[in-house]
Amino acid sequence: MMTLMAQSAERLVGRDADLETLAGLIGLSGTAPAGTGRHVLLAGDAGVGKTRILRELRGRAVADGRQTFVGHCLDFGDSAEAYLPFTEIIDNIISALPAVVAQVADAHPALLRMAPVARAFGGADTADQEALDRGNLFAAIHALLERAAEKTPVLIVVEDTHWADQSTRDLLTFLFTRPFVGPVTIVASYRADDLHRRHPLRRQLAEWTRLPSVERFHLGRLSDDDVRLLVAELAGDLGIDVESVVRRAEGNAFFVEELVQAAGTDELPWDLADLLLVRLEQLDATAREVVDTASAAGRDVSDELLHAVAGLDRATLDAGLRQAIERAILVPREDGYYVFRHALLGEAVYDDLLPGERVRLHQRYVEALRGDLTTGSSAGLARHARLAGDHETALAAGIAAGDEAAATGGPDEASQHYQQAIAQLARRASSEDDTQRLVDLVVKASDAMVAAGHADRAGKLAREQRESLPPDAPGLWRAQLMTVEIETSFAYVNDVEVEELAEAAMAKLPEDAPPLVRARLLAAYARVLMIYRRHDDAERAGQEALALAEELGRTGLAAEVATTLAGSWGRPAEPWIEPLRAAVARAAEVGALHPELRARLQLAYALDAVDRLEEAAESFRSAFELSVERGVPWAPYAFDARIAWIGRLYAKGRWDEALALTESYGIPAALSPWLESTRLMIEQDRGADLGEQARRLRPSWKQEVATASESVPVEIKAAGARGDVDGVIEAYDAAVEVLTRTWGQWFGGNARLSAVAVGAISTVIPGLPVGERRQVMAQVDRILAEGTRPADSPKLWGLEGQAWTARLVAEGLRVHWLAGIEPPEQEELVDAWRKTVAAFEAFPHVHELAWSRARLAEVLRAGGDAAGARVLVDQARESAKQLGAEPLLEHLRTLGTTPQRSATGPSGNLTARESEILALVAAGRSNGEIGKQLFISTKTVSVHVSNILAKLGASGRTEAAAIGRRRGLVE
């Protein structure tokens, strides 16, 4: 049997053009100054050669005088370690530039939370500190790269980001969006073929590639000629069937190498996993044991940990390693780690182990890591312990991993670790200590879940645990869990009677409760009291909570209470604007992110309530951008700010920007429908038929009722466009029922919803038989009454509410005119639409202003003011073109006619317009009256009447009416 020594090609084959392109993108060329390039996302299928070309790129960068630092993402599954590749990168920076790291850590203490920095310089005891605001950590890492680049340009390479944890992805977003003053370039690689539709990286890539600083480059497969060259480079003159390799490898460099390496065996399996394992048959027993042991660690393992786990003496281990390295199964890294040459190879080795072998290997890793965790991490220890069946160690390590992730600003990873620990404890919680531990864990997990945007799940978790407590459980435990339920209820719609729950929690809280537990409950209680307008009680509870928080040094909690006390629930907004500004400043000063977001949002609402619209928009924008910058875009108040800012962009006519913010990665399922409804609204205004998609969002109303206020107008307009009056009314009624139940009778937006519904019916009413119109108009009058607030109702909904109220009045008059039932006078109709135009100029809404101008133009043209109508049409058309609002453009093209349901009338001979005019003729209307009602000229009516007489064979109007009644064309 022929033996072929395993090797990789020394020369980079078939990638010269790709390498030149990559080098040019990062500014690594003869004409580009260092650091002038862009960040690059390197995509490619597994095994196509991403690592190989990056190694060549790094070599060029070093030759060009750049510093290069590499970090690898690993497949840890549900035991992800936050910021893993950056831990490796920072470790390397410490080795190369220890003085720089020390200086940055001194200026940015958050850097000490990263494990390599803490080991090198000593981190502060954080046991009694609040979780680190990840924004501070992000800023510290950004500053470190900046300082490193002061010496020479820096190239950062992050490999395999398809395995990146959420915190690493968020950090990359921060680094991509925050410009570097110095020459810092980042290249991140990922497997394109691993990105299935629900992959967490997929949407994030969409955001990254829209950034002007980021370029995506796809590394394609090798050509057949390049594969032949690669085979020759690998095998020389050993007589390999080259064409067989070309056919089977399909341009994948890794497959080529594997096929060449396996060519000397008696059997050549077709399945790649089997093919990979054929390589292992070339190893002796010792080398195979080393490789098996390494596979249980994941893709890479440190020399120290491998030595501790393998149980071999140094010489024997080295012999096994040398053989594995010579066969290109393991590759040594400069940092003392061994890595599988390809992730697929490590996976194949691990999958080939017997179940018992895996368990025993994981048990050995547990023993090694328990003795010296510096060779690994708490997340790794938890994973090994869980797979080894060592539940107590897995529990302790999982909690430690959650604490570490929370401290370094990784809420997603922290919540995963805590939830795994909760599941373990819940299965065995029988002692009082276990139950107290479980309650404390629920509180920790809930905090992490809320920060990650999963407040709904946090609330359900707390409720489930509270309901599972034994009847004689201490009141302290119930009070702690109730506190979490109250806090999460502020962040999403649910069926919790929060006032009743808050009173019950206060009653359960024992007098000797820990001060922090009391402070937190009092803070939540004060907020509930403020919401329910019990201002004096809220003030007392809030002041007590504030004093306790300040005494305990809990600056974040103190900032939260200060925001509550500065609120304006149920009171005039103007006096609370400055206190809210002070609350924003206080939270920002102490780095309390979530209280700052909440204060900014409340400030925006207060400014909006007093019609300081631009200031309100700026506050919404700043809150949203702050949340993205700090890596918590889905946290409470952050998401509300995003929605509000999208609404302002929509109103301003900046639709592309608004749509970009609806395409967001990693959004929690509970929040997605609300964001989706805003996307549907804009795309419908550009001509898409999305009524059915909007209707599919209805089940989500129970989770977030605000979805109804945005999605139902889409349903209503779609129903109107297809001539479905019943569909318009049903959708309107469904939304009013749920919004009234949640927000009260005069919910914000009721005028808008009614105006949209009446406007949709107006597009259908002219095509209805005369006999059906009165029944429809009865429903229209009901909708008008429901949307019009009585004189003694609460203050109108600011400028926005006033604009929609004016629009509702105008739409009501218009539909009566179109129906021919109690039609208004021309002057009244013109005045109503002029007021609507003026109202949407005062409350700037580009699209609605354009539509209002189009409606006013129709009325003016019907009254003979063609010149006035022309000016308005031109203004509306210009806006519609800029927006890409195709339905409005189409309406403007046909201006002068009334909306029609279909192209043919009910007779099959008369058109819909002719049938409509015949009904008015039969009702005794003159040509002038018909023209006025239908917004067309008297001359046009005369032409239609002549056509009707000719088609019916009638000698005059009276005979035409009689024929129409006889044929059922007129009721």
Automatic annotation (TrEMBL):
GO cellular component annotations of the record: cytoplasm
Family annotation (SMART domains): HTH_LUXR
Pfam family, any one: AAA_16
This protein's record includes keyword Membrane: no
Start and end residues of each HTH luxR-type domain: 903-968
UniProt-recorded Gene Ontology molecular function terms: adenylate cyclase activity; ATP binding; DNA binding
Presence of the UniProt keyword Hydrolase in the record: no
Gene Ontology process terms (BP): regulation of DNA-templated transcription
Keywords: ATP-binding, DNA-binding, Nucleotide-binding
Domain of life: Bacteria
Protein name listed in UniProt: DNA-binding CsgD family transcriptional regulator
Species annotation: Nocardioides albus
